[in-house]
Structure formats: C-alpha cells, structure tokens
Amino acid sequence: MIEKTEKIIMLKDFYGPLLTQKQQDALNLYYEDDWSLSEIADSMAISRQGVYDLLKRAEQALLDYEQRLCLLERFSLTREHLDKVIMLLNDIKSADRQKIEGALEIIRAIDDLI
Amino acid sequence: MIEKTEKIIMLKDFYGPLLTQKQQDALNLYYEDDWSLSEIADSMAISRQGVYDLLKRAEQALLDYEQRLCLLERFSLTREHLDKVIMLLNDIKSADRQKIEGALEIIRAIDDLI
To answer: In this complex, do B107 and A100 lie within 8 Å of one another by their Cβ atoms?
Structure first.
C-alpha cells in the first residue's frame, strides 16, 4: 500500500499538470493530506463513489502517461547515475585519471539517457 | 522557419507518444521526411486542408504539453549543465579540489533540476 502511494505521489509530481484541476485536487487530498474518501466527498460536494471514480481515473491517467513517456523510470535511472558520479568525484584525492574517466563515462551515459 | 521546425521536432521527441498515431504520422512526414501537404494528403486519403488542420492541432498539442510539463526547457538546461561538468572534468590535470567542487556544484544543480 505504501509502495503504491509513493508511486502515485511521484507520478503526480511528473504528470500532475496534465490532469484536470479536480483530479489534481482529489489526488492531493487523498495521497498528500491523507483525507478519507468521505471527507473529500463532503468537501467536493460529490458522492463517496464519485470520489472513488475520480481517483481511479486520475491514477489510471498517471499510469498511462508513464507508460507512454517513462519519465519516472528515466529520472530514477538518471538519479542513480548522478549519485554514482557524486560518490566518485568525492572520492578523488589526487590526479586519479582512471576515476575521472569513470565519472566521465557515467556523465556521458546520462547524456544519452535524457 | 528552420527554428520552428527544429522546435517542433524536439517537442515531438518528448511528447510524440501522447499524440494520436495519425498526428504522429503527419508530423513525421512533414517535418522529418519533408513531404508537402499535398503528398501527405494523397498518402492519407484526406484533403490538403485536412492535413493542414491535423498538423496545426498536433503542433498546438505539443506546445500545450510543453507549457504544462516544460520537459524541453528542463532537458535543455540539464544538457548545458552536463556540457559544463564534462568540460570541467576534462580539464582536471591534478588534484584540483576547487575544480572538483565546481563540478560537484553543477551536478547538485542537475539533481535539483530533474
């Protein structure tokens, strides 16, 4: 459950602006502010089932966008590369050409990725 | 004109998968393969005006996606940063801590950006 929540929140960060304002509001209240379906229903003056459907459609749209553009996947990978390059650079104490080349190789991989 | 063409091609690389197959096909034929509106019209069995409208709607969709997600802008900036960090790293001949710190600062900026 937590894993799914985290994924939806990350997808919302990437693709939120492509959703309707109502979808964004419902996702924010449910996933960020931890409101219940009933509380959101009261706030939006729609039925509990309506909120449920709204959230499901919004989540499905996010998953569909990710399937098409893979932004989350690409950025996760980019971040992994960046972490590695930072570790490498932090480790350079002298003119260690081999390490610098390693860092460069990763940076080129990032360049191909984005 | 060339500038607009390049921008549309770059936007198509980012957001193409969000367009309909027909829109993607028309954009590819017109911008990548340099077909005329009439040639595309013949190929798609629609009117020349129909192709024009199809292209206009596709281009507007691309611009709208960019306005919402700013992927092109963000990636252009990321690429600039990467170019700088590569130049910096290439320039390191010895244990030049200052340059390494400079590179790290840029990498952190990339990290904040993505």
So the answer is: no
Q: Are residues A31 and A9 in the same domain?
A: yes
Contacts of B12 in chain A (CB under 8 A): none
Q: Hey, is the C-beta of A63 within 8 angstroms of any chain B C-beta?
A: no
CB A58, CB A19: distance < 8 Å: yes
Whether residues B14 and B65 share a domain: the answer is yes
The predicted-structure confidence for A54-110, as pLDDT tens digits, reads as follows: 999 999 999 999 999 999 988 887 887 788 777 777 777 656 677 677 677 777 767
Residues B56-86: tens digit of each pLDDT: 999 999 999 999 999 998 888 778 778 777 7
Q: Does the CB of B90 have a partner CB in chain A at under 8 Å?
A: yes
Do A92 and A61 have their domain in common? no
